[in-house]
Amino acid sequence: MRVHHTISLLVATGCLALTGCDPQPADTGGGPAPSAATAPAPAPAGSSAAPPKTGKAQAVVPDFVGQVLQTAQDRAQATGFYLLSSHDALGRNRHQVLDRNWKVCTQTPAAGTTTGTTTRIDFGTVKNEESCP
Q1: Would you say 84 and 47 are in contact if contact means Cβ atoms under 8 Å apart?
Q2: How far apart are CA 128 and CA 63, in angstroms?
Q3: Lowest CB count within 10 Å: 6, 10, 33, 89, which one?
Q4: What is the chain's mean pLDDT, rounded?
Q5: What is the pLDDT of residue 40?
Q6: Coil, strand or helix: which one is 120?
Q7: CATH class of domain segment(s) 58-127
Q8: Reduced to 3 states, what is the DSSP secondary structure of residue 125?
């Protein structure tokens, strides 16, 4: 009996919460229904609206070769590049779990390239004590 009472109380509370969140005002029948295709009011004459954003942010890709992977990632982010990946440059499919233990041997795109900051930068890496291929 107690379980049914608790379930009923939860259902009633949920229904009240949902109906209380209705953002539409109740129709009182006192006027025409609002139009769904209402256009925004035009800007007053002489005012200037902000121009729409066009294009993507651009930046020059720094040279990361020879840096510790963690440092290279930090510098890339400071430059505006947040899509970063790395791989084992020796082809051993090792994962760069501790970024401070790896150094950058190659990078794509190349240093000096001007590109959108949404471009992925990929680092070819080896362990700090290893030589680059």
Answers
A1: no
A2: 18
A3: 33
A4: 77
A5: 46
A6: coil
A7: alpha beta
A8: strand
Burial 119-128 (b: 16+ CB within 10 A, else e): eebebbbbee
User: 53 φ, ψ to 5°?
Assistant: -75, 130
Q: Which two tokens stand for residue 3?
A: 């379980």
Q: Is the pLDDT of residue 34 over 50?
A: no
Segments making up each domain of the chain, as ranges: 58-127
What is the spatial distance between Cα 5 and Cα 128, in angstroms, rounded to a whole number? 65
Which of 90, 72, 89, 70 is closest to 81 using CA atoms? 72
Q: Which uninterrupted H or E stretch holds 35?
A: none
Sheet holding 121-127, edge to edge: 84-88, 121-127, 102-108
Residue 56: what pLDDT? 81
49-102 tens-digit pLDDT? 444 455 689 999 999 999 999 999 999 999 999 999 999 999 999 999 999 999
User: Residue 87 corresponds to which tokens in the numbers above?
Assistant: 């791989």
What amino acid occupies position 125? T
3-state secondary structure of 45: coil
